Structure formats: structure tokens, C-alpha cells
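In response to the reviewer comment on reproducibility (Comment 2.3), we provide here a single inverse folding case reported in full, input and output, so that an independent group could reproduce the run without further information from us. The C-alpha cells appear first.
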């Protein structure tokens, strides 16, 4: 009887999930688990007037200075995505070239409206409210609706006044909230990436999206 129980006990433990993992069973990676987006990340508090953030991509690093003083809602939202690692592993997936000046335009990246990564939308802060403008090097949140923004952003190459708000036309544009302070050469390399032709016509979609490795605050 005792011998039978001894033989049965390991089987009972295995059925209940107890015991040591099998040799071929992967153990959870603590670093991966820590970087996984949380269900409800905290809202950053006491941010300085200027928040520096490093965007590491597969083509190099970009550093942006975010203007919390003039665009507090947008900067807080971006930092919340960054702190919760929601940008890590996303891509720059869009490259827009200005007609007649193909070296100018903007690139767009972020969560691409991923349901897994998105946070509740924020109120869009138009340039008519913040006083900021879409000049060369500007970082701006793309709108998800005419009045809201979420987790997709653009980096401007040359001035892009078309992204500013035009209240007379009822156009709120995008929400400028900072500028690139290092790595514009990387931005230009992303902008130069080949795009996919759709229906025989040029497309803005980057053929091989540029990976965003991680986005972190700079001390």
C-alpha cells in the first residue's frame, strides 16, 4: 500500500501543476515579463517642463525633447506609453514625401492602433492651443479622430504647416509636442526607406517597417 502511494504521488503532483518543470519546458523570462504592457499603467506625475526621451530603432537612436509646459496632455500620454513599454517592438510603418520635394515630409510610427497596446484616447491638443508648430524635427501625435489621439506619432523632415491646426477650415491637424534634438540622420534614413506600391501607384507604407526596439526616458 505504501509503495503504491509512493508511485502515485508524483502523478498527482504533475496533474495539479506541482513539482519541477520538465527539462524541455521554458521558464518565464523575468525581463520579458517586466517589459510586458500592464493592464492599467500609472499616469506620470510631476513631469518637468522638458522631458527627454530616447527612441531606439533598428537604424539608430533618436532623442526627442518633449514640451510638457505647452502640451501637457500629449506629453503625459506619450510618456505613459513609453514607461509601460507599449512602444517597444512596434515600428515606423509610414513615410510621406512632399510633392515636388521628395526629401521632405514625415515618418509615422507607434502602435498602429493595436487593440492590445492602445490606452484610452486623449483629447487632441491642436497647435492653435499650444502655440507649437510643425517645423523641421517636430514630433507630433497623429489624431485617431479629429478630436483625439492615442499611440501613433510622426517626426517631421522640413516644415510641415499642413499638419498645423486650421481653425477657419475646422481642421485641428496633429498635436505637436516636442522636437528631435539628436538623430535627425536616423529620421532621414527611415524616410528614405522604400515604400510598397499598391494598385500600381506609390504608397506611403514602408515595405520593410523599421523596428522600434525601445522607447525610454533619458535621465
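Designed residues, in position order:
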Amino acid at each position: 500500500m505504501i509503495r503504491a502511494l509512493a508511485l502515485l504521488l508524483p502523478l498527482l503532483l504533475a496533474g495539479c501543476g506541482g513539482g519541477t518543470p520538465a527539462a524541455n519546458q521554458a521558464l518565464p523570462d523575468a525581463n520579458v515579463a517586466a517589459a510586458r504592457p500592464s493592464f492599467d499603467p500609472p499616469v506620470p506625475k510631476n513631469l518637468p517642463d522638458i522631458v527627454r526621451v530616447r527612441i531606439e530603432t533598428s537604424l539608430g537612436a533618436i532623442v526627442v525633447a518633449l514640451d510638457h509646459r505647452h502640451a501637457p496632455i500629449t506629453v503625459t500620454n506619450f510618456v505613459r506609453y513609453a514607461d509601460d513599454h507599449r512602444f517597444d517592438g512596434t515600428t515606423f510603418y509610414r513615410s510621406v514625401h512632399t510633392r515636388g520635394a521628395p526629401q521632405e515630409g514625415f515618418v509615422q510610427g507607434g502602435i498602429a492602433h493595436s487593440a492590445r497596446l492602445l490606452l484610452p484616447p486623449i483629447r487632441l491638443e491642436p497647435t492653435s492651443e499650444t502655440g507649437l508648430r510643425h517645423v523641421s524635427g517636430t514630433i507630433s501625435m497623429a489624431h485617431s479622430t479629429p478630436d483625439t489621439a492615442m499611440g501613433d506619432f510622426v517626426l517631421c523632415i522640413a516644415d510641415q504647416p499642413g499638419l498645423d491646426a486650421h481653425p477657419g477650415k475646422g481642421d485641428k491637424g496633429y498635436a505637436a509636442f516636442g522636437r528631435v534634438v539628436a538623430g535627425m540622420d536616423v529620421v532621414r534614413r527611415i524616410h528614405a526607406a522604400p515604400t510598397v506600391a499598391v494598385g500600381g501607384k506609390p504608397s506611403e507604407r514602408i515595405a520593410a517597417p523599421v523596428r522600434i526596439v525601445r522607447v525610454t526616458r533619458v535621465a
